[in-house]
Amino acid sequence: MWSLAVDLSRQGAPVGQRAARVRSMAIWPTSKSVLLHLALVVVFAITLAPFAWMVSTSLKPTGASFTLPPQWIPRPATLVQYKTLFAQMNFARATLNSLVVAVSVTVLGLFINSLAGFAFAKYQFPGRQRLFGLLLASMMIPGQVAMLPLFMMFNKLGLLNNYLGLIIPGMASMFGIFLLKQFMMSIPDALLDSARIDGASEWRIYWQVVLPLTKPALATLAVFSFMGAWNDFLWPLIVMTKQSMYTLPVALANLTGEEHRTQYELLMAGSVVVILPIAIAFLAMQRFYMSGITAGSVKE
């Protein structure tokens, strides 16, 4: 700003004109910042509006959703929809099923994917590159293509209407192996060699050296795995025929009233129950997630 004033004075501009131009140049960055923040507030409000309406509708009595003018704040607010969900719609069992499946898939997936990623990143063995390329190529195959043979296999093994039928397909993923492999490649080999010189076994190197350094990538994969297992609808719909084994997405799809008329207040309450754990998990692991989502971009 001082350099601007000096340039104006050298150009011989009148003192009043110079002062006005300096003030206008000083105000412009502030106005630009205010406009930018206003635009961000508008975008945030537009993004948040559907979720706010969902929560508001879930707190309304049956049939009170489509009033004119629309009521963003329900009067009176009631928890009757949530009571109906857990007392009559067996949502408590569906919530338990989803928790068991999502937590199991996340924990087992982190263990198996990290082992595979560690092997591909830090060990040289025959066929390593070809095997990894084959696994990468499998990512181009849609998951729906494998559902029929997988269903037939699980039917012969007696894994239908069973937690294992939902957990086993999600225990390992090519995306998880690729993500952890790329991140582990950034760990110096000299660090692992030092541990071997000190007498550490390969398992101890993996457990006490590599995994602690891979926390950001593990947190990122944990969020993706939990969200994928929690929101999965098609596979649980195929392998689970008993209502007691439904997961939340399948139970949510069955929330219809008499004569197949949708009870929107009940449906919104179920949607809140489905979304809330995902939001909590993301917020709890956001610090690791944001650092891990951009990590691992190391060339081999």
Descriptive account of the structure:
Mean pLDDT is 83; it is low at 1-6 and 296-300. The chain is built from 15 helices and no strands. α1 (2-10) packs antiparallel against α2 and α11 crosses α15 (286-292). The chain has helices spanning 2-10, 15-58, 80-88, 91-122, 128-138, 147-157, 163-167, 174-184, 189-197, 202-213, 215-231, 234-239, 248-253, 264-284, 286-292. By secondary structure, it is mainly α. The longest helix has 44 residues, at 15-58. The protein starts with a helix and ends in an 8-residue tail after the last helix. The chain is globular and about 75 Å long.
Outline: globular
What is the H-and-E element order?
HHHHHHHHHHHHHHH
Most strands sheet: none
Radius of gyration: 28 Å
The mean pLDDT is 83
List segments where confidence is low: pLDDT < 50 over at least 5 consecutive residues: 1-6, 296-300
Extended strand count: 0
Structural class: mainly alpha
**Helical stretch count?**
15
Helix content: over 70%
Labels describing this entry:
mainly alpha, disordered C terminus, 300 residues, disordered N terminus, globular
Brief synopsis:
The two termini are 48 Å apart.
SSE diagram, text form:
Elements: H1 2-10, H2 15-58, H3 80-88, H4 91-122, H5 128-138, H6 147-157, H7 163-167, H8 174-184, H9 189-197, H10 202-213, H11 215-231, H12 234-239, H13 248-253, H14 264-284, H15 286-292
